[in-house]
Amino acid sequence: MSERQEAALVMEGIDKRFPGVHALKGVDLRVEPGQVMGIVGENGAGKSTLIKVLAGAYLPDGGSITVSGEPLQAGGPADSLAAGIAVIYQELSLVPEMSVAENLFLGDMPTRGPLVDQRETRERARRLLARVGLDDLSTGAPVGSLRLGVRQLLEVAKALHRDVRVLVMDEPTSALQSSEVEVLFDVVRGLRGEGISVIYISHHLEEVFEICDAATVMRDGAVVGSRPIGEWTTETLVQAMVNKRLGSLFPSRERDIGEVALEVRDLTLEPSVRGVSFGVREGEILGLAGVVGAGRTETLKTIAGVTPATGGEISVKGRERKVRSVADGLEAGIVYVPEDRGTEGLVYSATINENLILSVLDRISRAGFVDRVRYRDLGQRLRERFGVRASSLRQEAGQLSGGNQQKVVLARAMATEPSVVLLDEPTRGIDVGAKSEIYEHMLKIAVGGGAVVMVSSEFPELLGMADRIVVMRGGRVVGEIAGSEADQEKVLEYATSAAEPGDVDSGGEKG
Amino acid sequence: MSEQSTAGEEQRQGQAPQEGTGKRGARGILARFLSGTGPILGAWLLLCVVLAAIAPNFLEFDNITQIVVQSAVIGIAAVGMTFVIITAGIDLSVGSVVALTGMLAGISMQGGAPGFVGILVALGVGFLIGCFNGFSTTFFGITPFIVTLAVLSMARGLTLAVSSGQTVYGFPASFTFVGQAELLGVSLLVWLTLATFAIGYLVLSHTVFGHQVYAIGGNREAARLAGIPVRRVSFLVYAIAGLCAGLSAVALTSQLNSALPSAAEGLELQVIAAVVIGGTSLFGGRGNMVGTLIGVLLIGTLNNGLTLLNVPPFWVQFVQGVVIFLAVLIDALNRRR
User: Rounded to two decimals, what is the model's pTM?
Assistant: First the structure.
């Protein structure tokens, strides 16, 4: 990289640890003024953590940040803002009930004396809106009435209102239509022309190639490559993203693929699940692929009764089941293992033992009273079977490392003796060692005749574990690939293709 | 150092559902006790020692009876409140519900109903109001704070309306014996309170329902995803609190042999204070009945001591407020750790 001009942003040796996870391992990043820097990497690679450090939301454990030659005293969000760093998160931060102008100047309205200067507000809002191509937008319109694409641009305008030097955009196109994406790209090019640097985070590699001047690849909390875009190809980018070392992590074993264990037909829950059909057999591991927002998690939750379907059929072992609640799902032999252990998986304040038996309290009780001996015995058995490492079963679940937490959630699910196991991002945010243990357990479930459906955004995991991959996009099944024929490009092609789902020849839709 | 970490670990477990004493032996039991309900028990004993030293009459039999009887009303209601708060809920209506159920029981007995009918009226109405609280929060999704605040006002208003603001008094002996009779030389109210606590302890720590209460308070969504009937359990918790308020009204009304329209005003705060002082977290998921019992005794003793020392009533309320604040502060600090 050139040293001639002063870089807009230099991050050096940024280090961040969470309990059980080394999230950032000495990350270096350099962004030139007026450069659009793409950051790519699988989920869990450390992109989000890096942004949060940049935004001041996380305090790094080590390393330094320099903005236009000035060291940033990383202290909090206000310091980052003052240094000219603005971050637009995936979840937009606009207030729907307030007007466009009010949102733009939130907490910082132009005033005359004690009153808001309405005319000045309008004038300045118009100038800002013009910079993001929203010349025609009424400054008084409530933000809640605007389309998502327009709101995204509004976020950009809001960032520009502060004297921004580095604008970070996290998956800005995940909710946009293709025409809106073009508008956004034009705006990004305009910012580049003004000398503003943009950090662009995306799962969509084709977007990165279209809009970015350079791309940085992250993997397992470290930067594995940072080059001008011309020196990358899709292949080299993907290769850098995918941890080749992980290849050996995936266990494989001969399995008997048996009868159809789960079959869903036209499963519907608007707006995320739109007529999904597929089947899984006993002993089979099915991967559910797609980009963020494709409806994969929602599909699993609908099958399990967490969010009951409004239409379609669910059959387990050839028998149609009505799944109106989680209890119905468990009764039918379907269990869902959620993605987020903290908010959906574990009761942190309760002990490991308590978490392990939560779904089978009925089985270890007599006349409503919990049998203490069976309670402890079952907890002990599950702990041993899943290799949960803890000082005691009475330790609180919240104190465990990510990997051990995941084992507890998995063990609880398996305690229900299900025939269908739905795993949502089963290894997100856990260390490599724990990952391989989880893979081993998945395989054991399959070898034991269980049917596994796994949602994963990590390609090596999908390709390494799944016998078959069903690809979703926009709430529909858009393709199906046999595990032996699957590679990342094929999956990505289905998952991100601009063609409408209906245009794609889909084996999955025929069920 | 290892001693310290062991104690710390035990403390965090001290308030989870009971799982037996484990294998650490006497030292482990002691460590758990010291870090669980130990400190609050110590604080209570210390308070007793101080009051015995400086307050005249504190250790006299009549005074101790007085403490226990006052504690009965708070304590019985606190058993129900413990369930509610462990689910991360709150019930502000208990004071008014005690007044209303006591008043309705009183009116029914003045109309000639026998004592057991009066008791059933109090329990039944309390239960129904609890069901109303539970239904509104779980099925309409209204914040418990708001629902029970509204019910606080409604129940108090109804009490005044049905009594025309007049005190109702003079009940049959088949009712007043609850608050006035003795068993084995100890007031029946004491036995009633202990029995309520014992049942509350059994249900909370040893039944499927109790385990579900903890899980819901600790993480509602995780509990739902684990297949726990979150709505049903949340509903029942308020019904139990209502039932306990009704029983608390029986204790109060039978002991006074009269039902006052202004009875139990502000009782909810004392009940909540007792529960929180006893180690139950307002954030949910943590707490236990033994702690609540000691919390109740501490509040009762504090009230009594301040009266004995002739502290003006305004300051009594102030001191109670300070104690509540300290308990909540400790809860918040524990949570942050």
Answer: 0.72
